[in-house]
Automatic annotation (TrEMBL):
CDD domains: ABC_NrtD_SsuB_transporters (cd03293). The lineage of its organism: Bacteria, Pseudomonadati, Pseudomonadota, Alphaproteobacteria, Rhodospirillales. Belongs to the ABC transporter superfamily. GO terms for molecular function: ATP binding; ATP hydrolysis activity. This is ABC transporter ATP-binding protein. The keyword ATP-binding applies. SUPFAM superfamilies: P-loop containing nucleoside triphosphate hydrolases (SSF52540). InterPro entries: AAA+_ATPase, ABC_transporter-like_ATP-bd, ABC_transporter-like_CS, ABC_transporter_ATP-bind, P-loop_NTPase. Residues 13-245 form the ABC transporter domain. Keywords: ATP-binding, Nucleotide-binding, Transport.
Amino acid sequence: MASNTNETAGPAVSCRGVGKIWAAGTSRAHEALQDIDLEIEPGEFVVLLGPSGCGKSTLLYLIAGLEQQTSGLLTYFGDAVTAPSPDRSLIFQETSLFPWLSVWENVSFGLQIRGDSEPDRRAAAKEVLQRVGLAEAGSKRPDELSGGMRQRVAVARALAMRPRVLLMDEPFAALDVQTRQKMQDFLIDVWRDSGASVVFVTHHIDEAVALADRVCVFTARPGRIKETVKVDLPRPRDPFSPECEELRKQLTQLLKDEVDRAFEEQENMAEAV
Ligand SMILES: Nc1ncnc2c1ncn2[C@@H]1O[C@H](COP(=O)(O)OP(=O)(O)OP(=O)(O)O)[C@@H](O)[C@H]1O
């Protein structure tokens, strides 16, 4: 895999005392994250779970290098994160596919920008489209695909760049329940094949239990990691097993107070407007 980072330097991503204040130093200053300590190992699947507005997306943007933290240290394979890199691909809830390009062109777009040759682009796009089960859909446009297929194209486009870390911001939230479950199974297969670490944001406790090696539960804003829960269960996981049921209970309990606090804060903000 393409990488010029120091691979012997330990975790794929390390956050030490990371904080983020939006519009720091202005009257609009707004603390989103506080004192985040988190290490993500190569190949690990970490889920970030927390109430609305607790800073989960903000943390993904910091890891992606799209924003800079206002305190603490954030490293990627030992190097400070200062800018975005295709090594750390970000996938959103709404896919950002180019509607006027075919699936092939969407998937190979980043490779073209990087300067890969036409044969290399074709080979890489073919491989990742096969991997996401869309080998036959290369000539279609995004509006000819279902929501689930579009998200698979988005995953293929990210994988084509051979990322070491996939950052996923509620990627299946817009899908119906059945499609979401299929996409979770699909993601687990793709993740295992790729060897990448995944940092996955969700509001859904079921999704966290189905996917994670580790779930980081956030407090209400400013987001801190309230507790980290290890999910030491083989995959695929039976959602009706007593172990999954127990984990759901534990996570629901951990989240409850934080969701109540987040609601209170939002009500206070609405009253102040
Ligand atoms: N670009 C920005 N400028 C100023 N404030 C921002 C910006 N982006 C996010 N925020 C604020 O930072 C806080 C955390 O937002 P963020 O989107 O990271 O939370 P979240 O946990 O991902 O929320 P949700 O689950 O609702 O998507 C919120 O109060 C939000 O309003």
